[in-house]
Amino acid sequence: MSIRIKQLNKYYGDYHALQNINLQVPTGSLTALLGPSGCGKTTLLRIIAGLERADSGELFFADDEVSNLHVRERRVGFMFQHYALFRHMTVFDNVAFGLQVLPKRIRPNKAEIAARVHELLQLVQLDWLAKVYPQQLSGGQRQRIALARALATRPKLLLLDEPFGALDAKVRKELRQWLLEIHHQLGITSVLVTHDQEEALEMADQIVVMNQGKVEQSGAASSLYDNPENVFVTEFLGEVNVFEDACIEHGQLCLGHYHEPITTGEKARQNVAVYIRPQEIQVLTHIQDNVIASACVEEIHAIGAQIRLWLRREDNNQRIQVWLSPAEFRTLSLQSAQTVWFRPQRLTMFRLPEMVDYVI
Ligand code: ADP
Ligand code: MG
């Protein structure tokens, strides 16, 4: 079921917590609301769920305006970071709860409930734990049971608020893949709140980057990562080196010794900030044309699929992060304290103060 939000606003007293939010969530997609703590993600999710009311704006599920629909009538499943299971109930009873509290006319009978609970426990691969109590479960198992509970009433929407936030990194990574499989298997529409950009990039079909109550940019993960529209999105979505000593003059971008023709309508010199992702920096062991500067190799972290280097630029001492593939690293055969030269393979720039951007 698709979600459409138009011009939505929410205030807490004088505080404008959500500002003119417009958003579309396609049916069957997994959309991530991504942003720093306090930007309004949970508030937006709670408004979608019907746990909170917006002050203005419209909210549609498919073609129906649902702003006045009670939470029980919205057919959404929730899972929160601290959505504790009922301690005094077995896993089975926790999962069955949502069905047992349905109004009598639509409540399944006892046998149907039991069948549904076992089906859900199989889905989350914990059928063998039906009779145990929550204290006997690991953190990861608890969240899997919480998901089974959220799905009990066959919701059309699944709303997840930092569901794995309290778990350790390894379990979190496993559960992400597991949740993604379930999302696809059920064909459900899901909205995931997270402040973790890696989680959003790994899981979401669509990412909505939020900041201070506003949507900064939304789109497919790759389009946001490669074509960020502003400084906030550039910096929030992945690592990036910022070069503030750049300018545009005489139709050229100039950064250190690097020049690149660009078309701008304006003739006057403008200062710009250039953003280059660590994997978009080319390292050279001999000086060549059109390098930004020379640098000293300060640190080499040669572990895993990505070799991470820190360079120290020799003209201004700036530290620069570079990621190489093991093959590139072997070809260069870099040593600590060696002098190298570097240039961009791809860059994004923003005028200072931020106005228009270019990607080269
Ligand atoms: P996030 O989930 O992105 O961390 P929230 O949606 O929880 O952010 O909160 C957004 C802002 O609204 C925060 O500044 C928070 O302090 C404020 N806020 C959230 N809930 C309430 C509330 N019930 N009363 C007053 N302020 C609130
Ligand atoms: Mg939150």
From TrEMBL:
Q: Name one GO molecular function term.
A: ABC-type sulfate transporter activity
Sorted UniProt keywords: ATP-binding, Cell membrane, Membrane, Nucleotide-binding, Sulfate transport, Translocase, Transport
Mind telling me which Pfam families this protein's record contains?
Answer: ABC_tran, TOBE_3
> What name is this protein filed under?
Sulfate ABC transporter ATP-binding protein
- Tell me which residues make up the ABC transporter domain: 3-237
Q: Superkingdom of this entry's organism? A: Bacteria
Q: Which GO terms describe its cellular component?
A: ATP-binding cassette (ABC) transporter complex
